[in-house]
Design goal:
Elements lengths: L2 E8 L4 H10 L4 E6 L19 E8 L4 H12 L5 E6 L4 H6 L5 E3 L3 E4 L11 E4 L12 H11 L7 E5 L5 H8 L4 E5 L3 H13 L9 E2 L9 E7 L2 H6 L1 H6 L1 E13 L3 H8 L3 E3 L3 E3 L2 E8 L1
Subcellular location: Cytoplasm
GO molecular function, one term: protein-lysine N-methyltransferase activity
InterPro entries: Ribosomal_L11_MeTrfase_PrmA (IPR050078), Ribosomal_PrmA_MeTrfase (IPR004498), SAM-dependent_MTases_sf (IPR029063)
């Protein structure tokens, strides 16, 4: 069945009343998207911020009267409103979404492989992980920077901590690359559940990958600590993260914008011999060895 899609330019304060109004007109879904490729970083807890320039997308069944819909939109948004109505052909939305994701290689050995794809190199280290609400699937530059770094480390026999584990992608990758044990921690209970599910999917023994809320995590240092979170928490957590790395152990930090790099490096420079900063698409990875 074809659809009618309304694209309406709004400001954040218009989001809720416009959403209610369009649902009242019969929209089957309302979503919001960035109108100008404007990132939102480190939102306040409990908030769902929108971009300063946002597009509202409302989907209607095709039997709705297009002229009447346009009149209602003018009444809702005003005569100068910036909106566009277009016809969307029906398709296999799930198949279309799946076609956007393919196996990705990180470093020399490691692949992230969606469940519906065959592994391109069956003999490589293949981590099976699907996109979605998985808190990190390798597609973001910060995750890619960490995965490439892990692929280049001699992890055999090492203990690893994944601080802010999300999907568990970094901890599971470390285990598949040879680490003996990895501990994951995250403030989100759903993230911990996602980590457990992904570990099980990849045949990881739960005893090798325990996950904890931060307050419950054992205060035991590890050979390798990775933290792909945000610059603000990385700075404030520097004393704790430093304690979690054994003397001579390695630390990898990401989730950092290029302009935040010096502040994060300064927070760790007393305890670590830091490597040159790595950058990808404006995002930073900072690594070093514990003194």
């Amino acid at each position: 069945m074809p659809w009618l899609q309304v694209r309406l330019a709004i400001t954040p304060d218009q989001a809720e009343p416009y959403e209610d109004a369009l649902l009242g007109l019969g929209a089957v879904s309302v979503t919001f998207m960035d109108a100008e490729d404007q990132p939102i970083f480190e939102p306040d807890l409990g908030t769902t911020p929108l971009w300063s320039k946002t597009h509202l997308l409302a989907l209607f069944e095709s039997d709705i009267n297009e002229q009447d819909l346009a009149k209602h939109l003018t009444l809702i948004a005003g005569t100068g409103a910036d909106f566009h109505i277009e016809h969307i052909e029906d398709q296999d939305w799930e198949r279309s979404w799946m076609d956007n994701f393919h196996p990705m290689r990180f470093g020399q050995r490691l692949w992230i492989v969606p469940s519906w794809h065959e592994a391109p190199e069956p003999g490589a280290v293949n981590l099976h992980l699907d996109p979605g609400l998985a808190f990190g699937t390798g597609t973001h530059p910060t995750t890619a920077l960490c995965l490439e770094w892990l692929d280049g480390q001699p992890l055999e026999g090492y203990q690893v901590i994944d601080f802010g584990c999300g999907s568990g992608i970094l901890a599971i990758a470390a285990l598949l690359l040879g680490a003996t044990r990895a501990v994951g921690t995250d403030i989100d209970v759903q993230a911990l559940e996602a980590s457990r599910d992904n570990a099980n999917r990849n045949g990881v023994d739960p005893a090798r990958f325990p996950v904890y809320l931060p307050a419950d995590m054992p205060d035991e240092p590890a050979d390798v600590v990775v933290a792909n979170i945000l610059a603000g928490p990385l700075v404030s957590l520097a004393p704790q993260l430093s304690r979690l790395v054994k003397s001579g152990g390695r630390l990898a930090l990401s989730g950092i914008l290029a302009e935040q790099a010096e502040e994060v490096r300064a927070a760790y420079s007393a305890d670590f011999e830091l490597d040159p900063t790595a950058e990808r698409e404006g995002w930073i990875r900072i690594t070093g060895i514990k003194r």
